[in-house]
Design a protein that fits this description.
- The complex is a heterodimer of chains A (83) and B (136).
- Chain A is 76% helix and 0% strand.
- Chain A has helices at 2-10, 21-37, 44-75, 77-81.
- Chain B is mainly alpha-helical and 136 residues long.
- The longest helix of chain B has 34 residues, at 68-101.
- The radius of gyration of chain B is 16 Å and the shape is elongated.
- Classes of the chains: A mainly alpha (83), B mainly alpha (136).
- At the A-B interface, helix 2 and helix 3 of A face helix 1, helix 2 and helix 3 of B.
């Protein structure tokens, strides 16, 4: 995790890590457009930043999924009756 | 980089910006993969995966109750696709590192295989998203 954060910080001028997945997608496209305008492929540092952003979005969604699961569990009859 | 590669990448970007992964039918190629470099394929998959996560998040937050089976399937697909992308990330990075230091012996085959596996996992995630939306 530390390595991921370090990679993201190194590329923070290009991509601010966001928990908003759509923003991440837009930033990936912006990064690609910038590289395209410079006639080059993405660098490994830029790829690392994309990967870090994806991990952030993944972590956020897994938390949302866990919350939905907890809501389901709480709504079960056995949970309501305390059985 | 070849111009055709960038055309494919730009096309992919337009698709993703247009409405996330939900706009891309599961299993359908989003660009001409054969013309793309491993890194281009990888960031395309990263973007498709992240877009799918966003759509899933929106569905979950808009629903008061989600079918347990759909929730479990989605959770599994998210985790598996994430793991497949992690594997592709490291394999593609290893390919570029080998190409930089030992271009005569660097093989793209492992990266290609890992990218194909990641593509399959992202497709499965998009199908899980469709199933989740079906429960709305």
């Amino acid at each position: 995790m530390g390595a991921i954060l370090a990679a993201a910080e190194a590329a923070s001028a290009i991509l601010a890590v966001s928990m908003n997945g759509l923003q991440v997608v837009q930033q990936i496209n912006q990064m690609v457009a910038t590289a395209q305008s410079q006639g080059r492929d993405l660098t490994q540092g830029e790829m690392d930043a994309i990967i870090a952003a994806r991990h952030s979005a993944q972590t956020a969604l897994l938390a949302t999924l866990a919350a939905a699961q907890a809501k389901l569990d709480a709504a079960r009859p056995s949970a309501k009756s305390g059985a | 980089m070849r111009r055709s590669s960038w055309v494919g990448a730009a096309f992919l970007g337009l698709l993703l910006l247009g409405g996330c992964a939900a706009a891309i039918p599961p299993g359908q190629p989003v660009a001409n993969v054969a013309q793309m470099t491993p890194r281009e394929q990888l960031y395309g998959l990263e973007a498709a995966y992240t877009a799918a996560l966003t759509s899933i998040d929106q569905v979950l937050k808009s629903q008061t109750a989600v079918p347990a089976a759909a929730l479990a399937a989605t959770q599994s697909a998210v985790t598996q696709a994430g793991a497949a992308l992690d594997a592709a990330d490291s394999t593609v990075a290893a390919y570029y590192a080998a190409e930089a230091t030992q271009p005569a012996t660097a093989s793209m085959a492992p990266a290609t295989a890992a990218l194909q596996q990641a593509q399959t996992a992202v497709n499965a995630l998009q199908q899980a998203l469709v199933a989740l939306k079906g429960g709305q």
